[in-house]
Amino acid sequence: MVLKSPTHGFRLSFLPSLFPGARFVIIERNPYEVFASNLKLWQTLLDMYSLESYSAEQIQNFVLAAYLIHEETIAEGMRSLGPGTVSRVRYEDLVADPLTEIRRIYSELKLSGFHEAEPALLQHIASVSNHQRNRFVLSPAQKEAVDEEWGPLIRDKGYKWPANWLSLKSSA
Fold first, then answer.
1. Which domain holds residue 21?
2. CA distance 31 to 68
3. How many domains are there within the chain?
4. C-alpha–C-alpha distance, residues 103 and 133, integer Å
5. Beta-strand (E) ranges in the chain?
6. Taking a C-beta distance cutoff of 8 angstroms, is the pair 35, 146 a contact?
7. Cα separation of 147 and 121, whole Å?
8. What gap in Å lies between CA 52 and CA 31, rounded to an integer?
9. Which of the ends of the chain has fewer CB neighbours closer than 10 A, N or C?
10. Would you say the C-alpha torsion 129, 134, 137, 142 has a positive or negative sign?
11. Which SS3 state, helix, strand or coil, does residue 25 take?
12. To the nearest 5 percent, what fractions of the chain are helix, strand and coil?
C-alpha cells in the first residue's frame, strides 16, 4: 500500500514500474475544498519553514496552477494504466456511504477478500463516525479566481459550490 498523498498523483505513470501488478485508488475532492485546504496548508508551511516571504497572491497563484498540473498528470497516468488497475472515488461519496464505495472499489479492481475485511471496515467506520470536517472561508475574489481557473474542470467533474461547509467572507 502506498500512502494517501496528493504527490503520488504526480507519480502515477511511474508507480507501476516499482510495484508491478499494483492497483490504484484515486480519491478526488470538490475542487473548492481542494483550493481552500491547499491554500491553508501552503500558508502554514511557508510561514513555518520558508526562508523568504510569499504574498497571499503568490500562494494562491501557486495553488491554482499546481492543481491543474496535478489533475492533468493524474489523467495521463490513468490513461497509461491497464483496465482494472485504477478506481476513482469521490471523497464525498466515500464519507456518505463508505462501505458501498469500498465494496465498489474492491469490485472494480477485482480484489478478493472484501467479506473477510468487512468486519474491520465496519469497526473503523464506526470509530470515525464523529469526525468533523474543517470548515473554510474564502473571499469572493478567491472564489472568482477558482471559478476562472478551474471552472471547466469543476463543471466536467459535476461539482458545485459546497455551501454546507465552505463560506464566503461577506464584503462589508
1. 6-168
2. 10
3. 1
4. 24
5. 24-28, 86-90, 136-138, 166-168
6. yes
7. 37
8. 28
9. C
10. negative
11. strand
12. 60, 10, 30
DSSP tag of 26: E
Angle at 101 between CA 100 and CA 105, to 5 degrees: 120
Q: Which residue has the cell 470509530?
A: 127
Give the domain CATH number at 78.
3.40.50.300
Nearest residue to 24 via CA among 77, 70, 93, 68? 77
| Pick from 3-12, 22-31, 55-64, 138-147: least confident | 3-12
| Whole-angstrom distance, CA of residue 111 vs CA of residue 105 | 8
What distance in Å separates the CA atoms of residue 28 and residue 18, rounded to the nearest whole number? 23
The answer to whether residue 33 scores a pLDDT higher than 70 is yes
Integer Cα distance of 158 and 111 in angstroms: 28
Residue 110 banded pLDDT, cuts 50, 70, 90 = very high
**What is d(CA 86, CA 101) in angstroms, rounded to the nearest whole number?**
14
Q: Which residues are bridge partners to 166 per DSSP?
A: 136
Under 8 Å between Cβ of 84 and 108: yes
Q: What is the pTM of this model?
A: 0.85
Does 1 map to a domain?
no
